[in-house]
Structures are given as C-alpha cells and as structure tokens.
Amino acid sequence: MSTNKDDLDLVQKLAALLNDAGLSEIEYEADDRRIRVARTLVAAAAPLALPAMAAPAPGGPQSTVAGTDDNNHPGAVKSPMVGTAYLAPEPGKPPFVAVGDKVAAGQTLLIIEAMKTFNPIKASKAGTVTRVVVENAQPVEFGQVLMIVE
Fold first, then answer.
1. Rounded CA gap, 132 and 147, in Å?
2. Does residue 92 contact residue 128 with C-beta atoms inside 8 Å?
3. Considering only CA atoms, which of 29, 41, 119 is closest in space to residue 82?
4. pLDDT band, residue 44 (cuts 50/70/90)
5. Residue 3 needs a FRET pair 20 to 30 A away by CA distance; which of 22, 65, 76, 108 works?
6. pLDDT band at 68 (very low <50, low <70, confident <90, very high)
7. Whole-number Å distance between alpha carbons of 88 and 111
8. Residue with more model confidence, 143 or 25
9. 72, 96, 76: which is closest to 85 by C-alpha?
10. Domain ranges of the chain
C-alpha cells in the first residue's frame, strides 16, 4: 500500500515529465491508484467561442472516412489527448489547413479542446496534407488519427 509521501513523489515526477515533454496532461494508473496531473495552457489563437462552431457537411472535400491502414501510415497525425477537434481557429474563419496544402514542421494543423484548454496540434514534419480524417467539432480519443501529412 502506498503512502501519501509515495504519492507526492510520484506526482512530482509526473509533473517534471509533463513539463519536460511539453504535455498538457499525464495520467498514471497502477493497481488501486490513479493519478492525473494537468496544467492549464493558454492558446492565443483559440477564443472561447469555439464550441459554437458548426460541423461541415459529411463527405465534404476535406473529410474522408478513416481507412484501416491510417494508424500505421507514416504521415499519420494522431491525437495526443482526449478532447474535441476544431479545424479552424474560430467560428467563421477558414480552417488551419485543407487537403492539398503544403505545411511546414511546427505549423498548426488543428486544435483540440480538452477541459476548457485549447491545445494546438502541430505538424511534426513538412509535407502535404493528403487527408483530413476528422470532422470539425468532432470528439477524439487519445491516439486517434486526425490527418495524414505526406
């Protein structure tokens, strides 16, 4: 059975890992305990009005149904957290990227709102957006493929 000191030490280690990795939240679960450490990030380009955005019509030019090979695709951009994906910085604005756009490493592709915090999801490499797998304002899971950048 763990003590409060053990839990405090684990929380401190998780917080350090959270900071070092640049994450907004981290969760640890083992046996009968579960510890979640989160921090609030401020994204200047993401106003609080985002949840009011309307989703585009299904089957539009930006969306496709995820194929079974998307998870293993080398250009798959996966969600680092559970939340709601938004393709544009605010309602009525154009999306961050569209199919066919060339992107630079570090460029914002979309944002994920999690616990009232808007987290930019950036391209890990330069390339071309070949597929946007999620719809605007769609709930997403950890590890879910969001787009393909080749």
1. 4
2. no
3. 119
4. very low
5. 22
6. low
7. 8
8. 143
9. 96
10. 4-38, 50-149
